Amino acid sequence: MQSFNWLSGSRASSLSNRRNHTRSFPSHVEPLESRVHLSSTVESFDGTGNNITNASWGQAGTDLLRLAAAAYADGVSTPSLPSDLSARTISNILNNQANPADPSQELQTVDRQSLSDYGYVFGQFIDHDLDHTPDGGASFPIAVAAGDPIGPNALPFTRSQTDPGTGTSTANPLQQITTVTSYLDLSQVYGSSQIVADALRTFKGGLMKTSPGNMLPYDNTTYFTPAQIAALNMANDAHAVPQSQLFATGDVRGNENVELTAMQTLFVRNHNQIAGKLHKAHPAWTDEQLFQEARKLNVAQYQNIVFNGWIPAVLGNNALPGYSGYKPNVDATISNEFATVAFRFGHSLLSSNIERANNDGTRIADVNPNGSAIPLAEDFFNPTILNPRGVVDPLTGHTSSDIGAVLKGVADGVSQATDLMAVNAVRNLLFGNGGFGGEDLMARDVQRDRDNGIPDYNTLRIAMGLPAVTSFSQITKDVNVQHQLAQAYPGGVNTIDAFEGGLAEDHVRGSDVGPLFQAIMVDQFTRLRDGDRFFYRNESFNAEERSILQQGNTLAKVIAANTEITNLQSDVFYFRASVSGTVSGGWYDHTGLDRNRDGTYGPIPQMKLQLQDMEGNVLATTVTDSRAHYRFDQLSGPASVPTIAYGLSAVGEYKIVLVLPSGMRQTSPAPNPVVVGKGDTNIQGVDFTVSLPWNHAHDWPGFGR
Asked: I need a surface site. Which of 11, 56, 154, 315 has the fewest CB within 10 A?
């Protein structure tokens, strides 16, 4: 992770954007004591006035931007790519992660950038801060072929809500709206309107509302008035629990899954612990002063984590141009292509289970005989799983936990790979909560592209300054994927849905996505940074503020400050671990000697070793190098069966097994299992010694005699 300086940002290179040619703009920020008194310097909840000249830029309730011209089939409003196959058929061809040899089992992939599950968990948390386009428009069902296991009926789907002043002609095509602010301002925590922000506050000591156990408040009249409940409008898509049992958050989607709800809870707790510190240091401050200052510092910590943690992990170091200050002619508004295409890449990263762990990395106690992991298919809109009292959730039969167990589990393993494939829980069981009637998230992504008038993959590449491809082989080197793309898009490369084409691309070096998604996300995050008057690097902070901010300048620190979890890798966006050692040996003859003639052991190259789990499944195989050294890590592989994640890709116990050739014997005792309790665990010195019959010693290069 990059080092972080809370002082004003560097003035390196200026951003030149094809829509917004920028210039440096000096800013003035008042000292703390005056700033907390001046409402003109407090960021609005709905984004209004962040840009003084263009007050509606980034405002909740405004249109998404377009990076490419709308491509509606009629030029006005009808969905794009009408001649393509059904979105569900496309998903069945391209996105199915089932094991071909046994469709009841899933292939397990490992992210090649070693992203932990925070790649998608924190990514979704960011996404819910930046955009929300409700559906509920005209019906646009997804056709399902005969015999499809998710059928026989078409999948329900309604079109996005749109700006009523658009869609009148080819000169004024339909435009989608976003109901939340575009800025990285923690609107998913504080809300995107004054009424929601006020509803979530206690108006005492600068604190936000919580429920017993330091959890989020519940969406009922114990915590809110009926008018506030209506304004919060918490979504309950699965209808698995009564509305009154949902948590209330600044974003309607806060209960969508337990990992997201844990993140929502974390940053409410973080606000309150900052407010508590401020109140102790400044007992005379009003509730408003404490609240706004805690909000400002909470947002600053969050923005730093986004730009110095999540973005480098996903897009690579130095993916964005250098920061050269706030630019008032840069529009930070979210683009349709970002919201609808590129920022949905994380759907491929999702795993089938949500792990929950103690601080030492062991799984929490659970009455469920299947263990403490929550199947993703049973997790949608079920906040009952989060309860520090350890009650039994009636929906899943699992013991509930505090958020720390979930946040530790998210850090404790490598995510699925960013590729075309998606797990069954989101491709067949979305919002079904383990039963029937689920939906297909990948098909919905494709359908939403078409609904919003997103152009085909090649047209969008050209709009982003990338060359058009002329063959499927130019998208990916994977021949199997090339064949699948040709099957899904018999009309050729100019008919590919942008979402599917972007997922299929070979990745940019050092990035977890291909060139199209990389270009769209770099454009968006650069504008979010440079076009935000309240961006943390455009602010100045006094010594007290800097001290508070440094205490939460990584996500690991924020988790440790607000939960019982302290045993985390320093950068929780990666899971990296390894075990290594050597193999050395001598010879034996009728006298039973086990060493070389000079009394030493010599290095043995090309010795085969296996990394196994405690059930004896082979997770990876390697051989010693010329120095007799071996190493297993999260990228070692493959596994003996494709339904087991390969390599040292999660916390747990592992065995290192030496595979001996005929006639050779192991003279060292079998090593104890190695225990990995968190990322950044690198176990060395798991060494072996062997001996070989004297008359065969020459068969092994490097075997000293």
From this structure: 11
Residue 197's closest CA among 302, 273, 268, 125?
268
The Cα–Cα gap between 410 and 258 comes to: 11
563 DSSP β-pair partners: none
- Give the pTM: 0.92
Whole domain around residue 642: which residue ranges? 577-699
User: What pLDDT, in 10s, does the model give residues 582-610?
Assistant: 999 887 655 555 555 555 678 899 999 99
Q: Give CA–CA dist 552/306, Å, rounded.
A: 13
Q: Which long-range contacts (CB under 8 A, 24 or more apart) does 614-617 make?
A: 614/652, 614/653, 614/654, 614/655, 614/673, 616/655, 617/641, 617/644
The predicted model gives 308-314 an average pLDDT of 98
CATH number where 679 lies: 2.60.40.10
Flag whether 78 is in a domain. no
* In the predicted structure, residue 4 carries a pLDDT above the cut 70: no
8 pLDDT more than 50: no
Q: In this structure, are strands 674-676 and 652-659 parallel, antiparallel, or unpaired?
A: antiparallel
Three-class secondary structure of residue 115 per DSSP: strand
Which residues have CB under 8 Å from 390's CB, separation 6+?
399, 400, 401
Our count of domains for the chain comes to 1
| φ, ψ of residue 180 in degrees (nearest 5) | -120, 165
Residue 621 maps to a domain: yes
679 lies in some domain: yes
Amino acid at 282: H
One-letter identity of residue 318 = N
